[in-house]
């Protein structure tokens, strides 16, 4: 049986120092998790292949602090071709956050890349974790697996019906985690993230683009009428849930949990919040609805509260203010 050296509890947030891997370490959530793990004293191996989905230089900046820490090692490698058996040797926990993000590019010719980076890469991570008997594999899934759900807040037991090829690949990888747990006992935990925002957010995501448009006074392309509703979740809250999912002992292998903010908001309302935080309104370029965009997302957090003791604590207004401040600092630094 697999065993973990973790002594973590939600009440104390304490663990023995561990050797851990974070895939997608240079990304938005991955780099924030890396900083948190280093702050808690762990030895961290970050794996990232620096795809061109957005500027690799921005990802390098995300790791600027970690790269000065002697307990961090960056491995630039593609999970599909890397020697993961060697990379996972002696590793206690793998946080698998790497993947190809975004809905709109997952159609047509883009699907092959999504299938490779989201499904095949995850299978290779799980197989290496099985061979090396890693203590826990935490997989970053997505609320996109639900599509236009049958009810809100959506339960983990509700039928997933992805509305985009991206959602299909995230669900397929999640199923692999469940299958490796059921067949081989690999201790996997999957978290379905709901609309994560905050400092270091990817430049293609709504809050980042809205902030830029408000600062520069350039039109924001709004697809649809702005009634799309989301449960926005601040990155620090997401990282807290992610840390707990990797370190809390006695979580049943194959468990799937929602990570959802408690404050729901339409796109139109978000535009107003960003405008107030920046100090000037966001210009809007109205466009038709985009294929694959769910009209509403929002997850129940009863399961994650019961298992991990987690709940989101950051208000949308406070989180957007923090993201605006971080973006202004980036622009000032050049």
How would you describe this protein?
The chain is an alpha/beta fold. The protein has a domain at 19-194 and 235-260 and 300-312: Rossmann fold, CATH 3.40.50.720. It contains 10 helices and 13 strands. Helix 2 links the parallel strand 2 (43-48) and strand 3. Helix 4 runs parallel beside helix 5. It is globular, with a radius of gyration of 19 Å. Mean pLDDT is 94; it is low at 1-14.
What is the CATH topology of the domain at 19-194 and 235-260 and 300-312? Answer: Rossmann fold
The top-level CATH class of the domain at 19-194 and 235-260 and 300-312 is: Alpha Beta
Model regions low in confidence, pLDDT < 50 over at least 5 residues: 1-14
Name the helix and strand elements from N-terminus to C-terminus, one letter apiece: EHEHEHEHEHEEHEEEHEEHEHH
For the record, what is the CATH homologous superfamily label of the domain at 19-194 and 235-260 and 300-312? NAD(P)-binding Rossmann-like Domain
Helix content: 25-40%
Average pLDDT, all residues? 94
Order of strands across the biggest sheet? 3-2-1-4-5-6-11
The CATH architecture term of the domain at 19-194 and 235-260 and 300-312 is: 3-Layer(aba) Sandwich
| Rg (CA only) | 19 Å
**Main β-sheet, in a few words?**
7 strands, parallel
Kindly estimate the percentage of residues that lie in beta strands according to DSSP. Answer: 15-25%
- Give me the count of strands: 13
Oligomeric composition of the shown chains: single chain
- Basic shape: globular
Structural class: alpha/beta
Number of helices: 10
CA-to-CA gap between the ends? 51 Å
């Amino acid at each position: 049986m697999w065993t973990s050296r973790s002594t973590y509890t939600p009440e104390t947030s304490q663990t023995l120092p561990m050797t851990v891997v974070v895939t997608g370490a240079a990304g938005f959530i991955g780099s924030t998790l890396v900083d948190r793990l280093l702050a808690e004293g762990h030895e961290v191996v970050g794996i990232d292949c620096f795809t061109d989905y957005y500027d690799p230089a921005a990802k390098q900046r995300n790791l600027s602090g970690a790269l000065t820490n002697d307990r961090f090692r960056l491995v630039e490698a593609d999970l599909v071709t890397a020697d993961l058996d060697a990379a996972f040797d002696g590793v206690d926990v793998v946080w698998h956050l790497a993947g190809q993000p975004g809905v709109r590019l997952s159609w047509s010719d883009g699907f092959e890349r999504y299938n490779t980076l989201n499904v095949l890469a995850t299978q290779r991570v799980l197989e290496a974790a099985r061979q090396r008997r890693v203590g826990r594999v935490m997989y970053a899934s997505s609320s996109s697996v639900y599509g236009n759900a049958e009810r809100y807040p959506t339960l983990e037991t509700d039928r997933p019906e992805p509305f985009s090829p991206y959602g299909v690949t995230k669900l397929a990888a999640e199923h692999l985690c469940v299958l490796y747990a059921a067949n081989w006992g690999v201790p996997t935990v999957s978290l379905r993230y709901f609309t994560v925002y905050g400092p270091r957010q990817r430049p293609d995501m709504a809050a980042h683009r809205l902030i830029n448009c408000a600062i520069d006074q350039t039109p924001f392309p709004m697809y649809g009428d702005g009634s799309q509703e989301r449960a926005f979740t601040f990155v620090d809250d997401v990282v807290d849930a992610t840390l707990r999912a990797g370190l809390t002992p006695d979580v049943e292998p194959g468990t799937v949990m929602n990570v959802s903010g408690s404050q729901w908001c339409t796109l139109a309302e978000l535009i107003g919040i960003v405008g107030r935080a920046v100090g000037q309104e966001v210009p809007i370029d109205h466009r038709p609805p985009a294929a694959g965009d769910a009209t509403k997302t929002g997850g129940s957090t009863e399961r994650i509260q019961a298992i991990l003791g987690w709940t989101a604590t950051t208000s949308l207004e406070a989180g957007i203010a923090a993201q605006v401040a971080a973006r202004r600092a980036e622009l000032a630094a050049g």
